[in-house]
Write a structure and sequence with these properties.
The complex is a heterotrimer of chains A (254), B (404) and C (321).
Chain A: E1 2-6, E2 9-11, E3 33-35, H1 37-53, E4 56-62, H2 67-77, E5 81-86, H3 95-109, E6 113-117, H4 128-136, E7 140-150, E8 153-159, E9 165-171, E10 174-178, H5 190-199, E11 202-206, E12 220-222, E13 231-232, H6 237-250
Parallel strand pairs in A: 1-4, 1-6, 4-5, 5-11, 6-10, 7-10
Antiparallel strand pairs in A: 2-3, 7-8, 8-9
Chain B: H1 3-6, H2 13-20, H3 38-42, H4 53-61, H5 65-70, H6 82-86, H7 93-108, H8 113-125, H9 150-153, E1 157-162, H10 165-169, H11 171-186, E2 191-193, H12 203-207, H13 211-227, E3 230-235, H14 238-247, E4 257-259, H15 260-266, H16 268-271, E5 281-285, H17 299-307, E6 311-314, H18 336-343, H19 347-357, E7 362-365, H20 370-378, E8 388-391, H21 392-401
Parallel strand pairs in B: 1-2, 1-3, 3-4, 5-6, 5-7, 7-8
Helix pairs in contact in B: 11-21, 15-17, 19-20
Chain C: E1 5-8, E2 11-12, E3 15-16, H1 18-34, E4 38-44, E5 58-63, H2 72-86, E6 90-94, H3 99-110, E7 114-124, E8 127-134, E9 139-144, E10 150-154, E11 171-176, E12 185-191, E13 205-209, H4 219-229, E14 232-235, H5 237-241, E15 262-266, H6 272-275, E16 283-287, H7 295-298, E17 301-303, H8 307-320
Parallel strand pairs in C: 1-4, 1-6, 4-5, 5-11, 6-10, 7-10, 13-14, 13-15, 15-16, 16-17
Antiparallel strand pairs in C: 2-3, 7-8, 8-9
The chains are: A alpha/beta (254), B alpha/beta (404), C alpha/beta (321).
The complex binds flavin-adenine dinucleotide and iron/sulfur cluster (SF4) (2 copies).
Chain lengths: 254, 404, 321
């Protein structure tokens, strides 16, 4: 059983985001990148499956600043093989381009199971999991919260809003978009990560050219106006209740 | 468990662990344990621990350390040094046995999630709160005078003020930080801060079993210290004080450090003329574990309080060496939910009760963990409605304000 | 020139999801610019009745037992077919556990451009602009919807569900699903949420009670509100400490980090240990008698009222509507 996990680094929202001079992209100077939290869950799920079934785990990530750390951390958790995809990311990349680049890579690796975080907050052209599944002609199930493997099949639990979930069976190989791992991603001691840095090896693969077709062009990027402090709703109790109900409706929760 | 067993070709987990304890200062004293149980008796959470220090030693001797690793009650230890202070054989139980046991649990992955988050945040952002490192000096914004960073100052400065995590980021503790800034200004101290170049001191992470993380953070701070010229470091955080004073030198990072209360107590004569009456207040002082028991600093804070006109200092039942822990040390700050589940009591609430018992108006503190912990606890304790929690720096600043 | 807008109606077990109505509202606006029609696509088995209140010009109802439960492959194949037959200007799907994966699969397989997380659209001399919400809502991105056919996934917030509903039933055209090929996914069973054991980290609407609730018996007013609006009750630490709600409902540093669409607080002051757990909320609405409570610094909307006065009125109105 071969499991390949795809992990991406994305902007950390702990830092204020700023728009660059072109007005169409984020200013990279101050950007801090972290692993997409859902990809971290995908890694955890892979490690859990490895512990249960003895599968091999490969973690794959685009070669962006900080990638070595996330790969070594994955190794410290138990991943056997680490691969980074080297390419000219600064000139621009989107999920379509990345999925195209990864298609031949995945064909070579011949995984039984491809796990990836179901989405990332920077996705503007769809999510990478189903795009990759589409190019590879593999089935896809997203919002997965648990996986059982048996006889060339996977049973995945997919979550719907409101707590309902559904069990789906699918023949391998398959791409699964992870919403949450069965256990929260484990903490690995810094000493173990440092150890992995000494012993584990990161393979490098060339991405080649990025073909961005399939994603939109951004003409303008901006920050929505955030008001300082709360907008205070006042009036009679009736008025306030009506305003609140209006807000609930607008936000799609009622 | 014997010395010969330790030399056997395949040492057991117990053996390996036991011998590793000798690496801690005075660690070999563990051999002398009398099994008197004093340590477990004084431990605030001893009754809830599967393995309080004395029993853990017994299990080690019985070659059954595995049992300790399976239990999660070691996480009840708040590294308060109470056991260490009473042990007749002076065994370094807190920095040795208990901390090493947590290290083993951490390596096994037996870590409560709350603690994991704080450790992850410390790794990622250099502070356990998960705040942006770029914003480490944001607290200075509300002041009507400038706090220089070393990077801006571009010159040798007398004092490096190591601000610390909670003083930098926690909205309640920022008030004490600002008070401290004001005092330094009145004293005319030539100081600067590291701002975004400062990282968590790492001491509580170390005592929560994350030694590697501690070293990583210490190295970063050491590098930042090394970049600039200054004569000494001061800090309001006893945990940072403990790290820089006792632990950083072991990593080759040697800088003189003083706790804020020591530093100001030395200059109290300069401050006194500016201190005005704050009105009659019954004040009691909580000795933080890492100022008191771990570092023997008991008098400077009291000296400062005594200098404030209007303050009547009263002692709680537990004071000085036998002070009660607030529950925040050794990772306790990040184990609140876990410990509540097990104990259904908070150490901070006991302490508030003691302050109420001596009829204090103000509980004075000298550690940044305290204001949020004690204010939160005061809401839960009957009769604590009137009790105010104030850092000594805040009380001094109040007294200075009276002058304006 | 392609003009029509296809809207993929989402429904789970006999209920149309709200996002579907919002998508129709958006599609109506798009269709005005493109001078086309709004075609809603309803896929399933024995659910024709769900078409009744859709404010679409036409509903294409694909009836097939294989569409009875959602799977990405049947939806993708059906839509591939419909797109070929109808040549729409855009296909609108939800940015949800259904729409998101179908849109991306379609984009890869049919080589169609995709814009996701669309919040709103606007028309400008014949071309249509999208506004997408990125980086957890911290950034908006604008651009033109690619020609000639674009796939769009939508997040809620830009349109009202009412505007996608109509009291006159639309024209429903029942059609057969295509011959499905190579289906690999089969639905085995639904798993109901376990009652009493809610996972507050995945709830879209949380009603959070704090010490302001005063007594255990008063939790009921929050429960009633939650029931009327379809939310779940959670709490700050003092409430959980007293044992009035289980630890599974504790929000904050020592409890859970939640990320609901709406976080409504009743009598919570907003201590940093609590707010640490709610930073991921899309919208915070606070009700507190103290106008200086720190919770108002991070809330988007605030009400300075006594919860015991306001909440019953709110619940009653919600129950009526
Ligand atoms: C280490 C540590 C960890 C902690 N972890 C957590 C945690 O995970 N989660 C957590 O929540 N807290 C946590 N706390 C506690 C936290 O510091 C606060 O004490 C707590 O969040 C306060 O809860 P509250 O807002 O409900 O109560 P309070 O702060 O007492 O606020 C009650 C509010 O209700 C308002 N009010 C009163 N009556 C009414 C009324 N009738 N109508 C409207 N409003 C009214 C008041 O104006 C007030 O603002 C932690 C503390 C520490 C020290
Ligand atoms: S350090 Fe304190 S909490 Fe830990 S074992 Fe010793 S007495 Fe108990
Ligand atoms: S107090 Fe010291 S001697 Fe007594 S049991 Fe504890 S460790 Fe052993």
């Amino acid at each position: 059983m071969n499991i390949v996990v795809l992990a991406k680094l994305i902007p950390d929202l702990v830092e204020e985001l700023e728009i660059d001079d072109s007005g169409t992209a984020l200013d990279m100077t101050w950007l801090r990148l972290i692993i997409n939290e859902l990809d971290d869950h995908a890694i955890e799920e892979a490690i859990l499956l490895k512990e249960r079934t003895g599968a091999n785990v490969t973690v794959l990530a685009p070669d962006i600043e900080g990638v070595d750390d996330i790969l070594f951390t994955a190794a410290a958790k138990g991943a056997e093989r680490l691969i980074k995809i080297v390419g000219d990311y600064e000139s621009g990349v989107n999920n379509h381009a990345l999925a195209r680049v990864l298609t031949p890579v995945m064909k070579d690796l011949q995984p039984d199971l491809i796990l990836v975080g179901v989405e990332a907050h920077e996705d503007l052209d769809g999510s990478i999991g189903p795009l990759l599944a589409g190019y590879l002609d593999l089935p896809f199930i997203g919002y997965v919260a648990s996986i059982e493997l048996e006889d060339g099949k996977a049973t995945a639990t997919k979550e719907y809003p409101g707590g309902l979930s559904v069990e789906m069976e699918v023949t391998l190989p398959v791409v699964l978009g992870i919403q949450v791992a069965e256990e929260p991603p484990r903490y690995v001691a810094v000493s173990k990560v440092r150890q992995a840095m000494k012993t584990a090896e990161i393979e490098e693969l060339e991405a080649g050219d990025f073909d961005l077709a399939g994603g939109p062009t951004i003409d303008r990027m901006y920050q929505p106006e955030v008001s300082e402090g709360a907008t205070i709703i006042d009036g009679s109790l009736d008025d306030i209740a009506d305003s609140l109900i209006g807000i609930f409706k607008e936000l799609g929760v009622q | 468990m014997t010395a010969t067993a330790a030399q056997a070709p395949n040492p057991s987990i117990s053996d390996t662990f036991y011998t590793s304890l000798f690496e801690v200062d005075n660690g070999e004293r563990i051999r002398a344990c009398l099994q008197c149980g004093t340590c477990s008796g004084v431990c605030p959470f001893g009754y809830l621990m599967g393995f309080p220090p004395g029993r853990m030693i017994a299990y080690l001797r019985a070659d059954r350390f595995e049992n300790v690793l399976e239990s999660d009650t070691v996480w009840m230890c708040v590294s308060c040094y109470a056991c260490t202070a009473v042990c007749p054989k002076e065994i370094p139980l807190t920095p040795g046995l208990m901390t090493r046991a947590k290290e083993e649990l951490l390596l096994e992955g037996n870590v409560p999630t709350e603690l994991q988050d704080a450790l992850m945040n410390s790794q990622r952002y250099g502070n356990p709160l998960g705040e942006s490192p770029r914003k480490r000096a944001e607290w200075t914004k509300g002041l009507d005078f400038d706090i220089p960073t070393f990077r801006e100052a571009k010159r040798p400065v007398d004092v490096l003020w190591f601000v610390g995590d909670y003083p930098s980021y926690h909205p309640r503790v920022q008030l004490t930080t600002k008070a401290m800034a004001k005092i330094l200004r009145v004293l005319g101290v030539d100081f600067a801060i590291l701002g975004p170049e400062e990282n968590s001191d790492g001491d509580s992470q170390r005592l929560a079993g994350e030694r590697g993380l501690f070293e990583m953070l210490a190295e970063k701070n050491g590098k930042a210290f090394g970049k600039y010229e200054f004569n000494e470091i001061i800090t309001s955080d006893p945990h940072a004080y403990n790290a820089i004073k006792n632990e950083y030198p072991k990593l080759g990072i040697n800088f003189p450090v003083q706790h804020f209360t020591e530093f100001v107590a030395d200059r109290i004569d300069e401050l006194k003329p500016h201190l005005k009456d704050i009105g009659e207040r019954r004040v009691t002082y909580h000795d933080p574990c890492y100022l008191g028991r771990a570092n023997d600093i008991y008098d400077p804070p009291r000296k400062l309080l005594g200098a404030i006109p209007g303050v009547e200092l009263v002692e709680m039942t537990h004071n000085r060496t036998n002070s009660l822990c607030c529950g925040g040390g050794g990772g306790g700050m990040w184990l609140d939910g876990f410990q509540w589940e097990k104990a259904h009591v908070r150490l901070s609430e006991w302490r508030i009760q003691e302050a109420v018992n001596v009829d204090a108006d103000i509980l004075a503190v000298a550690c940044p963990y305290e204001p949020p912990r004690f204010e939160d606890a005061a809401k839960m304790v009957q009769g604590a409605g009137r009790l105010m929690v104030k850092d000594i720096a805040e009380l001094l600043a109040d007294s200075l304000k009276m002058e304006e | 020139m392609n003009k029509d807008i296809l809207v993929v109606i989402e429904h789970i077990r006999g209920e149309v999801a709200d996002i579907s109505y919002m998508m129709i509202a958006a599609a109506r606006q798009l269709a005005e610019t493109t001078e086309g029609e709004v075609l809603a696509v309803l896929m399933g088995s024995g659910i024709e009745n769900l078409a009744g209140n859709l404010a679409a010009d036409k509903v294409i109802y694909l009836e097939d037992p294989q569409l009875a439960n959602f799977t990405s492959d049947t939806y993708q194949q059906s839509l591939e077919n419909l797109i070929r037959e109808n040549n729409p200007r855009a296909v609108v799907l939800g940015h949800t556990s259904i729409g998101m994966e179908v849109a991306s699969l379609l984009s890869a397989k049919s080589d169609l451009p995709l814009v996701s997380s669309c919040l709103s659209f606007s028309g400008e001399n014949g071309s249509v602009k999208f506004t997408s919400q990125l980086y957890g809502g911290k950034i908006l991105a604008e651009g033109l919807i690619p020609e000639p056919i674009a796939l769009l996934t939508m997040v809620p917030g830009g349109y009202k569900p009412e505007d996608g509903q109509s009291s006159t039933p639309p024209l429903v055209i029942t059609a057969a699903a295509p011959q499905f090929a190579d289906l690999e996914i089969s639905v085995k069973q639904y798993i109901e949420p376990e009652t009493g054991d809610v996972d507050i980290t995945s709830e879209p609407l949380l009603i959070a009670v704090g010490r302001g609730i005063q007594l255990e018996d008063n939790i009921e007013i929050a429960e009633e509100l939650a029931e009327a609006i379809g939310g779940v009750v959670c709490a700050s630490r003092p409430v959980v400490d007293q044992g009035w709600l289980p630890t599974s409902r504790l929000v904050g540093k020592s409890g859970y980090q939640v990320k609901p669409k709406v976080y409504l607080t009743l009598g919570i002051s907003g201590a940093p240990e609590h707010t640490e757990g709610i930073a991921g909320s899309e919208t915070i609405i606070a009700i507190n008698t103290d106008p200086a409570a720190p919770i108002f610094n991070i809330a988007k909307y605030g009400v300075v009222e006594d919860i015991f006065d306001l909440v019953p009125v709110l619940t009653e109105k919600l129950e009526e509507s």
